[in-house]
Write a structure and sequence with these properties.
It contains two helices and six strands; from the N terminus they run E-E-E-H-E-E-H-E. The chain has 127 residues and is α+β, with helices and mostly antiparallel strands. It has a single domain, classed as 2-Layer Sandwich (Alpha-Beta Plaits). The strands form two sheets. The protein has a four-stranded antiparallel β-sheet with strand order 4-5-3-6, with no helix packed on it. A hairpin with a 2-residue loop joins strand 4 and strand 5. It is globular and about 50 Å long.
Length: 127
């Protein structure tokens, strides 16, 4: 089956997105071309998974494309935005996702914190 690049995303003959053929889960070093930030990851989390991981990031304007990609995946992983760059959701993040984030240079721009108690929208934080 032939793999094509359509608008920065690798697709098969039917137009269905596939993983980047240059991406290898076994290696930490990944050859990234300028237009391959469209890599997509599947979510293993259900809607009712306990939200016990806080992700805080500060990505500069020069990496807007990577920041938007990262934000889309947090939504895909059922994360909830608390503030613009503070999200809470289920843990742990997939290992191949973390490896890819590291390879595109975002790993040093984000922090994760494990919560002792799962987050709920109904919790009153200011009791």
């Amino acid at each position: 089956m032939k793999i094509r690049n359509y608008k920065g995303i690798y697709v098969n003959s039917f137009g269905i997105p596939v993983k980047n053929p240059n991406f290898n889960n076994k290696k930490d070093k990944i050859n990234i071309t300028k237009r391959s930030y469209g890599l997509s990851f599947n979510s293993d989390f259900s809607d009712n998974s306990p939200k016990d991981l806080v992700v805080i990031y500060d990505v500069p304007e020069e990496q807007k494309k990577e920041r938007d990609w990262f934000r889309r995946h947090l939504k895909k992983f059922n994360y909830i935005m608390i503030q613009r760059s503070v999200w809470v959701g289920p843990s742990p993040l997939p290992k191949d996702f973390i490896a890819y984030v590291k390879s595109i240079g975002l790993k040093d721009k984000l922090k994760t914190f494990k919560l002792a108690k799962a987050y709920s929208k109904n919790d009153n934080l200011f009791k």
